[in-house]
Each structure stands twice: as C-alpha cells, then as structure tokens.
Specification:
Blueprint: E1 2-8, E2 14-22, E3 25-35, H1 38-56, E4 75-81, H2 83-95, H3 103-114, H4 119-130, H5 149-164, E5 170-179, E6 203-210, E7 216-223, H6 232-242, E8 249-252, H7 259-267, E9 272-275, H8 283-293, E10 300-305, E11 308-314, H9 316-339, E12 349-351, E13 357-359, H10 361-369, E14 373-378, H11 387-394, H12 398-410, H13 421-445, H14 449-457, E15 461-466, E16 472-476, H15 480-483, H16 486-496
Length: 499
C-alpha cells in the first residue's frame, strides 16, 4: 500500500515522498518535493495524495476533496494558448460534416482561417498556438489529400441542403487566376490573362461553382493560359453528373459562354442566364434595342435570337456614368489621332496604315447608342421567368466574386510557392475546405471572418505552473464579448443540437 511520508532534510526543509512499507522497511516510490514552510508542505502532501489516487485507481470510501491552491509567488507563467479557438473551429468542422478528413488537411484548413501562411510556417504556428506537432515530412503526404476532393464537394452539397435548405434552383459560376512567385512555367503554371495584374508570372485558372448565397459547391483547376469560356462546361457537367436530381439554371458573365458553348448548353437542355456582349452585336440590332428603350429609365426590351432571348434594360444612372467614361476615352483617342501616335493602343483608334491612325467613328457611334444599356441572354421563356427576375438572378454573381475575394484576401490563397502539380492542386483543395468553413460561419452568424476571428482569438488560456508542486493551472480569459455577439447564439445551437 502506498503512503505519504515526511522527512527532514539537512537544509532544514521537509521532503514529501510516496513510499511503500514492507515490514519495517520503506521503499521510496516517488519524491514529490521539499517544502520550506507549513503551506508548502501541505501543498506537497496534497500533491502526493493525488498522485497515489491516480496511480492506484482505487475508489475511496471517503474521498478527499482536494483544494487546488496556487500561490502567486510560486507561480511561473508557461505561456498562452488558443485552445478555445481550436475547439470552436473543430466544432465547425463537425457541423460541416468534414470530420472524416485527415487531421493534416483539417489542421491546415483551420490555420488558413486563423493565420494564413506557408506550409512550413503553418507547422510552426500549429505547435505554437495549439500544441499540435507535425514534422516537415508532411510534404510527402500533402499530395495524397487530393483523393478526398470528390467527397468534400459532396459534403458541401449535402451541407447546403440540410443546413441552408438550398433548392438548387440556380448556381453561379465564375473564374479567377492565382499567380506563382516564380517566372518558371510548366504544363499547368502558364502565363495568361491575369486578374491579379501579374501577366509576366505563371498562373493557374480556378473555376468556382457556388449557390445563390455564395456557398462553394465545386471547383476545378485549369492551366494558366486556358480561355475562361472553356472552363465552365466541364465544371457544370461534373456537378450535374454527381447530383442527378438537380438541373439548375446556370448563371455566368459574358466572358464565360461564346456561341459554341451556348449551342452545347441548348443541346443538353440546360437553362442559363449570361451577360450579353452588346458591343459585338450588329448595328441594326443595336439601333432596334436603343429605339425600343428610348432612354426610359428601367425600361425593358426582349428580342429573340438563335441562342435564346436577349433582354436589355436602360438605366439613367448607368447612362451618366458610361457617358463620362466614353467622353474621356474619345478625348484620349482624338488626342492620339491629332499627334498621329501609332505606337499606343487605345479605344476608338484604328490604324489605316503603318504610320497613319484615325478615329473609329462607327465604333464610337455604336457605343453612344448603347450608353446606359445592359443585356442578358437566357433560354428561359418570359412565361417561366420574368425580365426582372432574369436580371435579379444575374446580379447574384457578386456572390462568386465575394467568394474569390474571401479566398484571395482572407485565406491568402495567392501567391502560390509550390512547383509540383499535385502540391499545387492540394494547396487549392486546402483553401477550398477553408472556404467551406468560412462561408458556413458567415452565413450562420452574419459576421465577417475578421470579426469571428477577433472574437474567438481573444479568448486565451494562460498556463501557470506551481514551481514547487509542478502542477499546471489554466486560466481562461472572460467570454464577455463573445457572449454579447452572434457567435453566442451559434454556440448555443451547437450545444443544443443532437450529437
């Protein structure tokens, strides 16, 4: 049987030990420590009794309620951790139905919400903030994460159905580009039209499909020189193939769909709403539209074309803005023509010969007729979808743009430092998972990621060790601000929901 023994030392202190008596002899099992005064000895005795209880696992008939006491002058601060943040985001992962994913993928996605950084720096921060340790060998495991892409997209689909009651009446599609901190190209990383103004650096093109609320559903990675119009159909077809019960209206801007792809969508009997490129229309059609609208604010005209109905509306506010812009461009073009500057490219200037330029009067005239007019093309009849709703749904495209801004700025998806194709694709996958978590929290709370991060990050755990007993005490900062925020309601809903 284990017992606590006190022994006087040569220095005058009292040593506290855990011993086992065998006959008249005692064997020291563990030395707890030495106390200089009564309070310290009492603390050591309590520590010894707790140690015995933990070692023997024996139920006591009359258990002792140990009082944990920390003397300030004996305390040493070991550091501050953010366990609350980790617990909160782990719960978010659970609610998003992603707990089946490897810890590596989830931890890296969580860190993009907390403090986006390189993979090496992320490893350091996971250890510093949460005590989670990874070796640099994880680099060989990162490409293996790609095998979970389809499952993650399916989880996103199920989540918006269950949590947000999404009916998939329509989906939104757009593309963006992500550049690399290098000038070396390969089959995937290729210079192209850059939305980041990094035309000299290789890039990749990302196509993203989202719900009407901007929740990410599916994505694909394309080579950096891929024409964005060629990216949409593979993503949309894959989504519909994976979810055969859905056949949503596809909404995209004018750059996404050309004549060839509109024809293909019609053959597949898929409905769409896309922005119209009125500047490419024949002059006769432009005049017909301008005459029908006649400068009346919020007026509509619907014209049948071979790819569906062309719906145009006029806005007085848009007219004023575009008029100012047109006047500026025409003045610039006029100045260039006056100087016969052939080296600079400008709107409304056309070359007559190698050394002669002149104003493109026909193009200026067309632009004047189109001032204040915006067009949309759809293969849905007016009977099934009014002009107002076509435009209303098209304007939801800002949700995709918002998702790209979130991923680029909040999650810092760019620039990318990887050079191996599988690592590049894995990086995008990690950011996609982070985007799912971010959008879930924002839709549930109405708060931005920055506000959410500030609320949970300010709740810290301070760890103080008793230098005598080596016991560690943890003190959590007050939850006052969080309790007064929208996060409090979300946490309560989580606690009340069945597990």
């Amino acid at each position: 049987m284990l017992s606590v023994r006190k022994v006087k030392t040569k220095s005058g202190s009292t040593a506290v030990q855990v011993v086992r008596y065998i006959g008249h002899k005692s064997n020291i099992i563990k030395h707890i420590g030495s106390g200089k005064d009564t309070d310290e000895v009492i603390a050591l005795i309590q520590k010894a009794q707790e140690w015995i209880a933990n070692q023997t696992k024996q139920l006591e008939l009359f258990p002792t309620n140990y009082k944990r006491v920390l003397f300030v002058d004996r305390g040493e601060c070991l550091g501050v951790s953010h366990q609350f943040t980790k617990d909160f985001l782990d719960k978010c992962v659970e609610k998003c139905g992603l707990t089946y994913l490897p810890a590596l993928l989830l931890d890296f996605a969580i860190m993009r919400l907390v403090e986006p950084a390189s993979k090496l720096r992320t490893i350091e921060l996971l250890n510093q903030y949460f005590g989670i340790q990874y070796s640099q060998r994880i680099y060989r495991n990162i490409p293996k994460l790609l095998s979970f892409k389809e499952q993650i997209e399916n989880s996103a689909f199920e989540l918006v159905q269950l949590e947000f009651k999404e009916t998939f009446y329509f989906v939104l599609y757009d593309v963006t580009t992500l550049y690399f901190e290098t000038f070396k190209s390969d089959d995937l990383r290729v210079p192209g039209f850059s939305k980041d103004n990094k035309s000299q650096q290789p890039q990749i093109v990302i196509g993203l499909l989202v719900t009407q609320e901007g929740f990410p559903l599916s994505y694909e990675v394309f080579a950096g020189n891929t024409f964005e119009g060629k990216t949409m159909l593979p993503v949309v077809y894959k989504f519909i193939e994976s979810h055969k019960d859905t056949k949503p209206i596809v909404i995209a801007d004018a750059a996404m769909l050309d004549e060839e792809r509109l024809t293909e969508l019609n053959k597949k009997e898929l409905s769409y709403i896309v922005g119209a490129r009125l500047a490419n229309s024949k002059m006769s059609l432009v005049k017909q539209i301008q005459t029908a609208l006649n400068g009346n604010d919020k007026a509509f005209v619907r014209v049948n074309t071979k790819h569906g109905d062309l719906i145009c509306n006029f806005s007085q506010k848009r007219f004023k803005k575009e008029t100012n812009e047109l006047n500026r461009l025409v003045k610039k073009a006029t100045d260039l023509v006056a100087r016969q500057s052939t080296g600079k490219k400008a709107a409304f200037v056309k070359k007559v010969s190698k050394d002669v330029v002149e104003l493109n009067v026909e193009l200026i005239e067309k632009r004047k007729l189109l001032l204040g007019i915006k067009g949309y093309v759809t293969n849905i009849s007016e009977k099934n979808l009014s002009n107002e709703n076509v435009i209303k749904y098209y304007h939801q495209l800002w949700h995709v743009e918002q998702s790209f801004r979130m991923s680029k700025h909040d999650l810092q998806t760019r620039p990318i430092y990887h050079y191996n194709e599988e690592s590049v694709r894995s990086h995008v996958l990690i950011c996609f998972v982070a985007l799912i978590l971010q959008k879930y929290l924002e839709l549930k709370t109405g708060l931005s990621l920055r506000d959410i991060r500030d609320l949970i990050w300010n709740i810290t755990d301070t760890h103080i060790q008793d230098k005598l007993t080596k016991e560690i005490f943890t003190f959590r900062s007050p939850l006052t601000k969080l309790n007064d925020s929208q996060l409090s309601k979300l946490i309560k809903d989580w606690e009340d929901s069945p597990h």
